[in-house]
Amino acid sequence: MKKTLLSLIAFAAVSIAFAQNCTPDPQYTAPGVYPDSATGLAPAYVGLPYDETITTITPVDTCIVLIFPPCTVIPIDSVVIDNFSGLPAGFNVVSLNENNLNFVFPGGSTSCMRITGTATTGQEGTYPLTVSGLSWATVFGAPTSQPFNVDYYSLVIMPATGVEELSKTGFSVKQNSPNPFSSNSTIEYAVPAAGKVTVDVRNILGELIYTENTAA
Prior knowledge:
The chain folds into 2 domains: 2-158, no CATH class; 163-215, no CATH class. The protein is 7% helix and 44% strand.
């Protein structure tokens, strides 16, 4: 039972970094990782800069049943990440200490991790990501560690959208916010002259989920 719950601790607190190089999303207050496994990371597009922040709130403690109920409260000391793999060439994970993957995140902390990069032609596809390390808790006064391996995130690289080429004629689109989103998001764009604009929203698989025609 102890092994299972320590693994859950790691699952809930793995993909994080200090806010020196990223800013946690303040709308989240409950322990967990955002975006979650169901939402996933925003897709990247060939030729466009990618910038994705993952907000993580690490629990202070957990409650486990060692032998019989009731459960015993176990303080979460820290989560240590020592490996991040799967990112395509040209993409990086930004942390407090750049190029140092030995992240240490105390229990009860709110933090984030920032993934940046620009995809090039030929990189289109899905890249499964893996994060591993050790979760630490104090059990009966003794430090206890449990290895973890989290692999529910993937980075999807989509073909070029044509926005970069159009921007040379005065057309531009800013990064939508929030990103990713489930119901509402703000998309700012500029066009060189008045006219009709069609806005298409697609999911990470490239499927059209919303379209709107508007005057600009």
